[in-house]
């Protein structure tokens, strides 16, 4: 049996894991969810969730993966051979499947926009950008074939393997993303009237918070870090036993927060400068970006570069969504990787079609007032992710052998000999209680 590869370096792992985290969550979803949930105050709550729950939980997932070196299902089985904990692996795999099915829709849109930016037809037409967005996303054939193409690229990279596929791609894509993002931020901040956008982003006004803001902030912080679905368990299982985890998790969270902040600084000043509504929903990014570049010297060149970068950001997250499923199926046998990457990818495509059509022919088919797309997003991001986070917290807090936890953590700093107690308290009590309170809140129980 040909064994799975490993990451070839620690930085390769961090870039791949940060690549999984940094994606549509930070760049596409965050600005519009923040706008519809209350602006700057939402951002503050999001920050608290990211630092006090997201970071410790990310560390917990890394510990599970690295200490077992196994895929999401077998990792839980290895630590807890009896009981039902391995169902947590199934839950993560299923959630990843659902996320991938709507994630690939946006991936497809980005491909379509990328194509149009190449031919120049993104800037030169006689529609306003919001109508162009509607036209593009309502075309059933275009969106489904773009979605398929996006999935095919993901399959291609994942089928190549861990260090030769995912790591190599991320190592090139992530640094490029940061550098070009900075250019965008500078342009946006120097637009006329930009300061209003900055104020909107950074000045919390708690009166503006909507009723559901806290659940959205929580779900969004988990989604942005790729936690709660054992994707990070899978990625850290390919990590060398000697590598340290605390620093890695801090690096991943910091890079992710940095991107979220850059996205805020790129989008809101432009939104206010052009007099748009920040609450425009899923189309926000796709309407704002062309508007910025239209007014910029060499705008059409920059637009091409940017669409490519958003594609990178989205792809690197899609890799991890496919990887966890493939890893669970092949169970470390690298010779099966290729075949199952293709099979799983196609299944995701089939399930994803209704999500793709949610902005066109199937936009009237709703359940609980939500289209397929919204339903998949809501179910995964605001229900399944928090459940996953809750259970993983309990698992590491209660079931993971304490001596082994101390041993894993002390590899990098002796502080953990004492500090683990606090960490376990956080995992046992604080995180589960907070998640439950927020969770019951959405169902109107509290
Ligand atoms: N973190 C990714 C993003 O923000 C989405 C994701 C969630 C990826 C869960 C993997 C697992 O775009
Ligand atoms: Na990504």
UniProtKB/TrEMBL annotation:
Where exactly are the transmembrane stretches of this chain? 12-30, 42-64, 85-116, 136-159, 171-194, 214-238, 250-276, 296-328, 340-359, 379-400, 421-443
Record-linked PROSITE patterns: NA_NEUROTRAN_SYMP_1, NA_NEUROTRAN_SYMP_3
Q: Which GO terms describe its cellular component?
A: membrane
Localization recorded for this chain is: Membrane
Superkingdom of the source species: Bacteria
Q: Does the keyword Hydrolase apply?
A: no
InterPro entries recorded for this chain? Na/ntran_symport, SNS_sf, YocR/YhdH-like
Mode of membrane association: Multi-pass membrane protein
Primary subcellular site in the record, as a coarse category = membrane
**Alphabetized GO MF terms:** symporter activity
Q: Which UniProt keywords apply?
A: Membrane, Symport, Transmembrane, Transmembrane helix, Transport
Please provide an example of a Pfam family that matches this protein in its UniProt record. SNF
Q: Which family does it belong to?
A: Belongs to the sodium:neurotransmitter symporter (SNF) (TC 2.A.22) family.
Matching entries from NCBIfam families are given as: Na_transp (NF037979)
Q: Which PANTHER family match?
A: TRANSPORTER
What protein name applies here?
A: Transporter
Natural source organism: Paenibacillus albiflavus
* Organism classification: Bacteria, Bacillati, Bacillota, Bacilli, Bacillales
